[in-house]
């Protein structure tokens, strides 16, 4: 009886061990993973975002797409977006510096997308120090009355006011005495144009980036417009860019479709925008011009063709 009990106990132990080993050996691997090197960051720290694409294959165009990374602020605003190319074994990695657009204290969400696969993770940020410069106060001088023989009375000298240059916060630089957005800190790429023209270094993509950084973002109204536009644009552009890479015919169609818009934006290279009013005027004018080219003109042509019939 004792021998039977010992045998049963040994079999039960082996079964439990084999179950645990097999479970660990055949644990499922996520199709797309994303993680950060830390859970909490302070201003100026380097954020490393990495992960693995399980089914990545460089020999298959349908399985060698870039990974789209989007960083969402605690208030729901889009902070930045990037496209990362995995290496041959499917691992990918990118870095960014905490600060600039990442300035609000709280939990940030990182969303990764590769084709139909998606995943996300979070990290905490301690907030940026946007405090104004501290100017030392000139202590008030108290006059002490001293009575001495043959000595001229003491006269208070007026303090000399010294000009103090403003100290710009993270993500801005001093330009002509005013803090403006640092060109090196601006995030976000022209995903649709990059996919259409094949590279971020294409002249058309560089032109769009220069218009955005050197003209639109130099005014408050332009910065406000880009914030709202990015929320709308990056909600669909990663999907359109992926489809362009999968379908060459669609890619050429997009390239033809955005050429008139690029031509209209070239107007901004020949004007000087030095005020908010000029930015609003030229911006509204270019928007109306594009509405005319893409909607009004085709509608007029279709209307005339129908009347001839």
Automatic annotation (TrEMBL):
Sequence intervals crossing the membrane: 279-303
Record's keyword terms, sorted: Membrane, Transmembrane, Transmembrane helix
InterPro entries: CFI_box_CTERM_dom
Protein name according to UniProt: Copper-binding protein
């Amino acid at each position: 009886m004792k021998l039977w009990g010992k045998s049963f106990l040994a079999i039960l132990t082996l079964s439990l061990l084999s179950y645990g080993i097999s479970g660990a050996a055949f644990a499922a691997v996520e199709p797309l993973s994303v993680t950060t090197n830390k859970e909490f960051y302070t201003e100026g720290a380097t954020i490393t975002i990495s992960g693995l694409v399980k089914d990545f294959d460089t020999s298959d165009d349908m399985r060698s797409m870039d990974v789209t990374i989007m960083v969402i602020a605690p208030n729901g605003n889009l902070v930045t977006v990037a496209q990362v190319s995995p290496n041959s074994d499917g691992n990918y990695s990118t870095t960014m510096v905490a600060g600039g657009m990442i300035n609000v204290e709280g939990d940030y969400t990182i969303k990764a997308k590769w084709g139909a696969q998606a995943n996300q993770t979070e990290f905490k940020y301690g907030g940026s120090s946007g405090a104004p410069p501290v100017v030392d106060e000139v202590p008030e001088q108290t006059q002490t009355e001293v009575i001495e023989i043959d000595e001229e009375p003491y006269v208070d000298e007026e303090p000399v006011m010294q000009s103090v240059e403003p100290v710009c916060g993270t993500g801005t630089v001093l330009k002509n005495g005013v803090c403006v957005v640092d060109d090196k800190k601006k995030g976000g790429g022209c995903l649709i144009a990059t996919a259409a023209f094949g590279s971020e270094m294409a002249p058309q993509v560089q032109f769009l980036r220069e218009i955005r950084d050197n003209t639109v973002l130099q005014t408050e109204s332009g910065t406000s417009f880009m914030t709202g536009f990015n929320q709308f644009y990056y909600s669909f552009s990663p999907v359109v860019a992926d489809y362009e890479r999968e379908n060459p015919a669609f890619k050429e169609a997009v390239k033809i479709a955005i050429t008139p818009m690029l031509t209209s934006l070239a107007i901004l290279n020949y004007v000087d925008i030095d005020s908010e009013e000029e930015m609003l005027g030229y911006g509204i004018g270019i928007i109306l011009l594009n509405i005319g080219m893409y909607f009004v003109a085709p509608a007029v042509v279709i209307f005339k063709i129908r009347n001839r019939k």
